[in-house]
Write a structure and sequence with these properties.
The chain is an alpha+beta fold. The chain has 2 domains: 203 residues, no CATH class; 148 residues, no CATH class. It contains 13 helices and 13 strands. It has a 6-stranded antiparallel beta sheet with strand order 7-8-9-10-12-11, sandwiched between helices. The chain has a 3-stranded antiparallel beta sheet with strand order 3-2-13. Strands 1-4 form a two-stranded antiparallel ribbon. α6 runs parallel beside α11 and α6 crosses α13. The radius of gyration is 21 Å and the shape is globular. The mean pLDDT is 90. InterPro entries: DUF2252 (IPR018721). This is DUF2252 domain-containing protein.
Length: 402
C-alpha cells in the first residue's frame, strides 16, 4: 500500500521532521511529487517496453524547481541544475521523463491546460535532443541568458550578503547570531551545538575545501526542501578573523544512498560514501561547481557542505504563470542544461560518449512520443497517489510515525 511505502522510505529520518515533511507534501500534487522521488522511479523501472537510451550521469530528481541560480567557485553567477542528492548512472531518458512528468504535474497545479503543457513538454524533449545533436555542453550566466532567466539572474546578482544576514541573523548584545525566529531555523541541543561548532572549526583549519581565516560563531538546525526534509541539516554562521563584519553562511546536509539505487541494474563506481558520490556527480555535471563545495564526516554520518548564498534561488514557475513566452524560454533553457550536463559528463565511469549521445539525440523521432505518453501517465498516477495520501493524512495514518 502507498502509505506503507512512504512510511518505510522515511524510517530512519528525524521523527519530528518527518511530520513536517508529510505536512509540506499536502500542499499540492507537485509538492507531493517532489517528496516521492523513490516512488516515481520504482514505477518507472517496472515499465515494460521502455524506450532504450544510452547511460548517462543524472541528478536523479530533476524537476522544474531543481534549477536555480548560484555563485560558482569562480565567483560568477550561473543558472544550472542544483540538486544532486539522488545522482546516479542510469538511462539518459530517466532524467528526461522525470522532468517532463514534472511539467504535467506542475502545470496541473497551476491550472494550465493540457494542450499547453503538452506543447511545453514537446519543446523540452526537442530542445534536449537538439542540444545532444550539437555535442557541445552550454552554460547559462547573465551575459548569455535570455528572457525571464536573464531577469532572474540579473536580480540574483543585485542581492548581497547583508540582505541575507538581515533575514537570518539578529544582534544579541555585541554579537551577531543566527535568528531562531526565522521559520526555517530550529534550536539545537547545547551539547550537539558545541560539537558541531568545534567540528567545523577543525574542518576550516584542516580542509583544502574550506574558507581560510574564518571561525564559527553560531549554528542552527535548518529546514529546507521537500524530499530532503527529515535528514540532518545545519546552518553555520562564520565570521572572518581578518575583516570586520565579514560573514559567511555554510550549509551542512546529511547524505544518503540514492533512492534510485534499488531501481538500476547498471554497475556504479565504488564511492567512498554517499557524500563522495554526490560531490563527484555534481562536479562533473555542473558547468561550474558551487562555492565552498566540500564534504565532512560527523558522528558517523557523511555530509555535503556548501555556501548558502544571497543569489541562490530556486526558479519558481509561479513567476511565469500566465506568460507563455516566458514559459517557453525557461523550458528551453532547462532542456539545454539537461542535455549539457549529460554531454559534460559523457564518457566518465561508464556513461555514454559524446558521439553516442549525439546519435541518440538524432533519433528523437523514434522515442519522443513514447516519452510524452509515459510522462502523462506518470503525472496521472502521481495525482491518484496524492489524493490517496491526502485521505490517509487526514485520517491520521501518518501521525507519530518514526
Amino acid at each position: 500500500m502507498l502509505n506503507q511505502q512512504l512510511i518505510s522510505f522515511n524510517k530512519g529520518r528525524l521523527p519530528e521532521m518527518i511530520q513536517l515533511k508529510y505536512e509540506v507534501m499536502t500542499e499540492n500534487a507537485f509538492r507531493f511529487f517532489r517528496g516521492t522521488c523513490h516512488l516515481f522511479y520504482e514505477r518507472l523501472a517496472a515499465l515494460k517496453n521502455f524506450p532504450a537510451s544510452p547511460l548517462a550521469w543524472i541528478c536523479g530528481d530533476l524537476h522544474l524547481e531543481n534549477f536555480g541560480s548560484f555563485k560558482g567557485s569562480n565567483h560568477l553567477v550561473y543558472f544550472d541544475l542544483n540538486d544532486f542528492d539522488e545522482g546516479i548512472l542510469a538511462p539518459a531518458l530517466w532524467e528526461v521523463i522525470r522532468l517532463v512528468t514534472s511539467i504535467f504535474v506542475a502545470f496541473g497545479a497551476l491550472e494550465i491546460g493540457e494542450e499547453q503543457a503538452t506543447n511545453l513538454a514537446l519543446l523540452y524533449v526537442n530542445s534536449y535532443a537538439g542540444t545532444l545533436c550539437k555535442g557541445k555542453a552550454i552554460g547559462i550566466e547573465p551575459r548569455t541568458a535570455k528572457g525571464i532567466v536573464k531577469k532572474f539572474l540579473k536580480h540574483a546578482q543585485t542581492r548581497n550578503y547583508n540582505e541575507l544576514l538581515e533575514k537570518r541573523t539578529k544582534i544579541k548584545g555585541k554579537k551577531i547570531i543566527l535568528s531562531l525566529t526565522h521559520e526555517r531555523h530550529f534550536k539545537l541541543d547545547k551539547t550537539l551545538k558545541k560539537e558541531l561548532m568545534d567540528h567545523i572549526d577543525t574542518w576550516i583549519a584542516t580542509s583544502n575545501e574550506s574558507p581560510y581565516n574564518y571561525k564559527v560563531k553560531d549554528v542552527v538546525f535548518r529546514f529546507a526542501g521537500t524530499g530532503s526534509v527529515g535528514v540532518k541539516r545545519y546552518l553555520f554562521l562564520l565570521k572572518s578573523t581578518n575583516a570586520k563584519n565579514d560573514f559567511l553562511l555554510l550549509d551542512m546536509k546529511q547524505s544518503f544512498e540514492s533512492s534510485l539505487m534499488p531501481c538500476v541494474n547498471e554497475l556504479q563506481p565504488k564511492w567512498k560514501d554517499a557524500a563522495d558520490r554526490i560531490l563527484a556527480i555534481q562536479e562533473r555535471m555542473q558547468n561550474v561547481t558551487a562555492s565552498l563545495l566540500g564534504r565532512t564526516n560527523f558522528n558517523g554520518d557523511c555530509y555535503v557542505l556548501q555556501e548558502l548564498q544571497p543569489m541562490e534561488d530556486t526558479f519558481d514557475f509561479k513567476m511565469v504563470n500566465g506568460n507563455y513566452r516566458n514559459m517557453l524560454q525557461a523550458i528551453d533553457d532547462m532542456a539545454i542544461l539537461t542535455a549539457s550536463s549529460q554531454l559534460r559528463s559523457g564518457g566518465m565511469d561508464g556513461s555514454a560518449t559524446i558521439d553516442a549521445l549525439k546519435a541518440f539525440g538524432a533519433k528523437v523521432h523514434e522515442w519522443r512520443d513514447e516519452v510524452i505518453a509515459i510522462a502523462k501517465n506518470a503525472a496521472l498516477q502521481n495525482e491518484q497517489d496524492y489524493n490517496a495520501f491526502i485521505k490517509d493524512y487526514k485520517n491520521g495514518v501518518f501521525a507519530n510515525q518514526k
